Amino acid sequence: APAPPALLPYVPRVSTVALLGKITASTFVLERPQCVFDRHTNASDAVWLVVAFANASSAFRNPPSRADVPPYKRLLTAHSYMTLETAVTAYACSAPSPAVLRVGGDTACGGQDSPDPCNGPLPSPGPYRVKFLVMGCNGPIAETRWSDPILLRRAGSPSAIDPAPVRGGGTVVVIGAILASLGAVLAAAVLSAVGTKAWAYLCRRDLGTNSFARKSYRTHHIPPPLPLPPGCGCGCTPLGLGCSAPRPPGPCPAK
């Protein structure tokens, strides 16, 4: 019987890097096992990821050869499959490689009848457990420990959405009142500024059109004619006063 594969102390885990979509309804992101297999492998070996339902991981048996690798399409019947076949050199300490591995991210993996390894979307929330298995020409060489259970997100049912608005607490009410007051003050300020500018414009326009009518012109004052001395007929010129008609004959009386 072949020797059992070496058990490595590494435990796979979900990546601790801050990523969007680290765990979704059909995928999850694993930390890449860098510098884990160097002492137990050859350059011709390949590293596989075993994915199993958490309650079926203890029943999984390592395949004796690559031809016996359980495919993705058997997940719902065999409760496990193997995927992400990668050359062991890609996990070497010196290999420049991505820091994470996304499980279930291949939405077009060639169809479930394809003989190639498929990394298709996971069909249910799980939970799942995973481990890495090194396969050589003569079968399994080394393996890691199983991960802790990984539970995917559940999609919300439309019927479970409450159509009623959510009632806020006292803090929400206070904040709403403050915002409403600030809005009213801002609107009043805007209207006041617009009204002031409009009034000033109308005043300037009125002054421009009626300025001529409002101007005051002082004409030369002509005093009324002084009365003539008694007995002096029209036309005499006593004391230098002029007349507008000829004087009757005879001298003017003396003053």
TrEMBL record:
Keywords: Membrane, Transmembrane, Transmembrane helix. It comes from the Eukaryota. The chain crosses the membrane at residues 172-195. InterPro entries: Uroplakin-3 (IPR024831). One of its GO terms (cellular component) is membrane. PANTHER family: UROPLAKIN III, UROPLAKIN-3B. This is UPK3B protein. It comes from Todus mexicanus (Puerto Rican tody). The lineage of its organism: Eukaryota, Metazoa, Chordata, Craniata, Vertebrata. The gene is Upk3b.
